[in-house]
Amino acid sequence: MAAYAGIFDLFGLREWCDAGKTKSLMSLRQLKGEDPAWWEIPFPSLDNLHKACGSIPQTRDFTAWLENGFLAIRPSLRVVLDPLTQPLSWALDGALTLFTTLPWWCLVPIILVGTMLSSKSSRITAFVAACFAFFLFTDHYGYAVQTLSIIFVCTVLCAILGVPTGILMSKNDTAQRVITPVLDMLQTLPTFVYLIPLIFLFKITEPKLYGLAIILYSIVPVIRLTNLGIRLVDRDVIEAANAYGMTARQKLVQVEIPLALPNIMAGINQTIMMSLAMVVIASLVSAPGLGTLVLDGINNLRLGVGFVAGFGIVLLAIILDRVSKAALARVDESRKI
Amino acid sequence: MSTADKQVKIAVRNLYKIFGDDPASILPMLSDGIDKADIQRRTGHVIGLNNINVDISAGLITVIMGLSGSGKSTLIRHLNRLIEPTAGEIEMDGDDIMAYDSGRLRALRQTRMSMVFQKFALLPHRTVLQNTMLAPEIRGENGSASTEEAVKWIHRVGLEGCEDSFPHQLSGGMQQRVGLARALTSNAEVMLMDEAFSALDPLIRTSMQDLLLELQQDLHKTIVFITHDLDEALKLADHLVILKDGFIVQQGEPQHILLNPSDPYIEEFVSDINRARVLKVRSIMDGNRRAKANHGEVDSGMSLESLIAHAEGDIDRSFAVHDDGARVGTITMKAVFKALVRYDLAGTGRTNNGAG
Ligand SMILES: Nc1ncnc2c1ncn2[C@@H]1O[C@H](COP(=O)(O)OP(=O)(O)OP(=O)(O)O)[C@@H](O)[C@H]1O
Ligand SMILES: [Mg+2]
Q1: If you measure from the C-alpha of residue B319 to the centroid of ligand 2, how many angstroms do you get, rounded to a whole number?
Q2: pTM tops 0.80
Q3: Per 3-state DSSP, what percentage of chain B is helix, strand, and coil (rounded to 5)?
Q4: How large is the ipTM?
Q5: Quick one: which of A32, A40, B108, B287 has the most CB atoms within 10 Å?
Q6: Same domain (yes/no): A140, A50
Q7: Looking at the structure, do residues A53 and A84 belong to the same domain, yes or no?
Q8: Which domain covers residue A27, as residue numbers?
Q9: CA distance B256 to A122
Q10: Worst-scoring range by mean pLDDT, B2-11, B47-56, B113-122?
Q11: How many Å apart are CA B61 and CA B221, to the nearest integer?
């Protein structure tokens, strides 16, 4: 007899329990007719209760129910989400096509000029040039450019969405209370867990699947640091702005955002680094780039391929970090008190 | 030079400010005369201002003085409503400021009141010129006229050649000159200065005070100046208001307060001052225009220190006092030396004499 059967009998629920019951398999002990000793009593989990009463669902029924529920709402969710996220697919596709079709002798100089303009440092520019020479020599250039274009699109979108959200949070305590737990969750969820609902929602061939995963994962720091930066703006300066009769809008554009800019840039630097981390994992869901080589190395035990691609990712990380930090340092310099 | 016949620019009437959750509930307690510390202990509310009545005269410097926490900053921030009062009225040119909606209040701050801050409060990402042009820029006047105006004031406060520097490249004194230029460029009639010179070291502070007085001779702005330093207050003030725990202990002409302190708190304040340097002949002369004066004429604005030097320390001399060429009174050196003795010691001196 199952451990909790007595309880259901006691309340006269046997009939309800056995409705539609098919004879289930019995354990060896049950066959022998032995009851388990009292200290072996199991926790009344779904599975154990199911043994005593067939009408109670098993855990596996529960997960199946979740899955079916998800599948049931999927079409209606997609009606809403598809038009919203379609531009993301276009942007990713567009950027990938643009950057990969531009010939190397055209794109590399553009990147170097961009580096020089944003960092104002010839050392960093030389380092970037050396890295690209490495990518070109080892035939990893195409993959590196794919990775870069994904990061570029996702970072721009993170900034476009994250900065206004951060401003909203800094102006409105209710918004801060509501959004902070969401950000906490996004930051603590293991990266693989993100992918699960996204895989359900979108086809694995759609770029927006990995685009969304990257944006959700890496938008957190830019929101947090924008909020923090604006809240930390010197109260005396805000008071001066008020004393000279600035409107809320003038204050935001001329005082708060410029003074919070070092923090916002620090947030964007972290966002870039996190989207690089995610774009590697997102190769599991068909994100192109260096990550696919790493994945290939793991799946097919090709140590060399995985190792060189991994090294390439490290180089990209250093490039992105140095360039964004150099730009940040320049902003900091002009904002000292 | 009495302030009574001057035109009142800003009138503050029965102004109360209480910080806390339910300020209105505290108001009745104040009329019962319960003091600040008591109310704070019993209700957790802080008295910021307690029944303030001040007339701020047009074209003069009104100095508000008091120890830290006496409510000076709170009071000055009521004048442009950076802080809203719990009760009371503020009128500017006869207009009730408290009735202003946010649009009119902004217009008031943009055009009629400027402010200088203790910690300068410049925009760190803007050059000196851009900082100075803040007020016209907020008003939407970006033309070359505003630039010229800003450059004019930058030169006037002695910062030629610094137009394109950033604040962090300047010393504290220079930064406050930018703060001053910014206030002057706004062209407002009223200038609020909250401990504007307190963060500067003594020499620079003196030169900033001189600069302010020199500017004031030409501009005749209505200035409200806050300080916790009596020397500064006496140097700048046409009208002096002394605050303590949020209420006004005494207000009036500074020389008058110095000679007639109404309260032990003020006596303590004035006890360390160099009276010879601060007191003017005008304040202690005898109003008799015909009395015999055996050693010629002196100016009514002369300090006692200069007069003693002028008299070569001779206690028997007396002088005719003139103001703008007309005789206004007589001063004897005996009166001068008496005035130099501290208010609280004057009495003891006399009893000693009597006993001896
Ligand atoms: N926002 C506030 N909330 C609560 N109490 C306040 C607030 N602002 C000021 N106070 C209190 O009001 C009193 C007056 O403060 P205020 O800043 O006006 O003093 P102050 O004379 O300017 O002093 P200081 O010379 O230090 O600047 C102080 O006791 C202070 O603690
Ligand atoms: Mg203060």
Answers
A1: 44
A2: yes
A3: 45, 25, 35
A4: 0.86
A5: B108
A6: no
A7: no
A8: 2-57
A9: 69
A10: B2-11
A11: 8
